[in-house]
Amino acid sequence: MTTTLNPQSALIYVMVVISASDGRMSDAELHAIGDIVRSIRAFEGFDENKIITVSKECAAILQEREGLTAVLGLAKEALSPHLRETAYALALEIALAEAPVLPEENRVLQLLRTEFEIDRLVAAALERGAIVRHHRITA
Questions:
Q1: CA atoms of 20 and 104, how far apart (whole Å)
Q2: pLDDT recorded at residue 139
Q3: Which residues of 104-131 are buried (b: 16+ CB within 10 A; e: fewer)?
Q4: CA 108 to CA 7: how far, in whole Å?
Q5: CB burial class (10 A; 0-12, 13-18, 19+) of residue 81?
Q6: What is the pLDDT of residues 55-89, one digit of tens each?
Q7: What pLDDT, on a 0 to 100 scale, did the predictor assign at position 1?
Q8: Are 97 and 26 in contact (CB under 8 A)?
C-alpha cells in the first residue's frame, strides 16, 4: 500500500473513522471535526474547505471490504509516531463530543491504540486529559 495521504488528511481520516464507528456521523461530531481543523496547530496551512472532500474519501474507503483496516493502514503510513499520538488524542475528542462513548467507539479506539502502537501509559494520559476537558459543571 502506498501512502496517498498527507498527515492532515490522515488526521481527518482518523476523526471520521471514530465518528462513523456507530453507523452515523452526528452534527456534534462533525462540528467538533471542523473546530479541531480550524484550531489545532497540526492543521496550520490546511484548507478547511477540503474537510468535506477528505471526509467523503475516507467514507468511501470505509464502505469497501476491509475498509477500516485500509483506512487505519493509510493513516499509520502518513503519520509519524508523535502524530499517531495526536491522531489518538483527536479520536478521543470526537468520541467524547457526544457522551457517553459507545461500545463501537471503544472498539475503534482499541484498534487505533494497537495499530498506531500507542503506549498504554500514553493512551491512559491522553484518555484522562480528554475526559477532564469534557467534564460539565452540574448543579
A1: 9
A2: 52
A3: ebeebbebbbebbebeeeebeebbeebe
A4: 20
A5: exposed
A6: 999 999 999 999 999 999 999 999 999 999 999 99
A7: 41
A8: yes
Extract the residue ranges of the chain whose pLDDT is less than 70.
1-3, 139
Whether residue 37 contacts residue 87, with contact meaning beta carbons closer than 8 Å, is answered with no
Task: Name the pTM for this structure.
Answer: 0.91
d(C-alpha 70, C-alpha 1), whole Å = 9
d(CA 131, CA 53): 30
Residues 6+ apart with CB under 8 A from 10: 74, 75, 78, 79, 83, 87
Residue 114 to residues 55, 85, 119, Cα–Cα distance (Å): 23, 12, 9
Spell out the residues 6+ positions from residue 17 whose beta carbon is closer than 8 angstroms to its own: 58, 62, 68, 71, 72, 91, 108, 112
